[in-house]
């Protein structure tokens, strides 16, 4: 019998055990993979010019919470200005795109801005309504609706609005007009600065917690029997517990619980997340990226966005070299139909079209698939998710993290979620 256990060793699970430690308790983290980190982990690629490091997707920190900064700031970090650009119809436009339309032809600008001035107001039933009322139909249709399909894999009318928060810039007619007349617009990103460890990739930020907790790798939970408080692992081991935090994806957890009622199973089966194909590229020359990261509206290029690991930290690429990583999204609603080779070829062709690099600049093109990217807020998801969560909690299990809570949480929020769950479960 182990008093306190945590399933999943990403930042949320590790934070839950760290919370126990802060309170003079002990919790054991069981992680399926060979090391903790989850989505904050990274991988390296060897090339003729040396070693490249890539995080699993973009990962920059804009944490404000005292508890998070107290941990993250123990690793020396770089500070970056959140400056991004958008690739659209053969042009680079600064971000956010509606505030930076200066390079567009006059007639296009007139139509787009007139649409904003005439934006309808009324009931908001879905994300499409929200976009049209925020930006007017022409701007909404030209940029955010296109991006929504690339990033969320659903048309905007099938998405809810609860996830938006500070993530999408509201349209302000004065800002839009200013950006139509001049290129000299202020940075309107939702965070003032973005932080990234100087060494060791993004996971370095969670390393101080990893060092202080007990993590048992190579333990994939395959059954969670809540009535007998027993977890069985794929390697044949079992553990009995008193208190548990789970950071496993909520629908996965339900699949592991034999006593889940049919109605809960039915709700859980409707929850889905995007799958991310990561295309990571090493270049034999210095910085090829226009900015730290960029968005791609062109539908011919499958990637929704790209970013430069070598810009985040010099230690991510050998001297004189640089790197880019691209994210291509799919889901059960819009399955990936391209082969890995086709995804790579499309991205390399995209580099050429965007004027960033040609074949001779490339050292390697690497592919990796993340089965869980962003949880999708399709219409009515929150109610179904809340029912599932309530049932799991009725079984004495606290959920934590992006996939445990099934919410759009950044790393700092996932850590806060783990701290909260650790407090609730372990006292
Ligand atoms: C594309 C993308 C970009 C992002 N960019 C940023 C960013 O710029 N800034 C930022 O702050 N955040 C960013 N995030 C969010 C951040 O990655 C998450 O908030 C955070 O990593 C989630 O941590 P977690 O512990 O909740 O989940 P995870 O990291 O997924 O951890 C879950 C763990 O559970 C383990 N596990 C799964 N099944 C089992 C099982 N059966 N048994 C045992 N273990 C199991 C997994 O191996 C994993 O280690 C991004 C996320 C994505 C997808």
* Total number of domains: 3
* Overall geometry: globular
CATH superfamily of the largest domain: FAD/NAD(P)-binding domain
What is the number of beta strands? 18
Mean pLDDT: 96
Structural class: alpha/beta
User: What kind of assembly state do the chains in view correspond to?
Assistant: single chain
- Percent of sequence in beta strands: 15-25%
Q: Termini separation (Å)?
A: 18 Å
At CATH level 2, the architecture of the largest domain is 3-Layer(bba) Sandwich
Bound molecules: flavin-adenine dinucleotide
Annotated CATH topology of the largest domain: FAD/NAD(P)-binding domain
Q: Radius of gyration from the CA trace? A: 22 Å
In the CATH scheme, the class of the largest domain would be: Alpha Beta
| Share of helix, binned | 25-40%
Low-pLDDT stretches are none
Main sheet characteristics:
7 strands, mixed
Q: Helical segment tally?
A: 15
Please describe what this structure looks like:
This protein is of the alpha/beta class. It has 3 domains: 2-37 and 206-272 and 380-426, FAD/NAD(P)-binding domain (3-Layer(bba) Sandwich), CATH 3.50.50.60; 43-72 and 84-95 and 193-199 and 274-371, Polyamine Oxidase, Chain A, domain 2; 96-181, no CATH class. Helices cover 32% and strands 22% of the residues. It is built from 15 helices and 18 strands. It has helices spanning 11-22, 66-72, 106-117, 127-135, 137-142, 144-152, 173-181, 207-210, 250-256, 262-269, 309-312, 340-353, 381-394, 401-404, 411-426, and strands at residues 2-7, 28-30, 42-47, 50-55, 77-80, 84-88, 91-94, 194-197, 214-216, 221-225, 230-233, 238-246, 275-283, 293-296, 305-307, 322-330, 362-370, 397-399. Strands 1, 2, 9, 10, 11, 12 and 18 form a 7-stranded mixed sheet that branches. A 7-stranded mixed sheet has the order 7-6-14-15-16-13-17. Strand 6 and strand 7 form a beta hairpin. Helix 3 packs antiparallel against helix 7. The radius of gyration is 22 Å and the shape is globular. The two termini are 18 Å apart. Bound molecules: flavin-adenine dinucleotide.
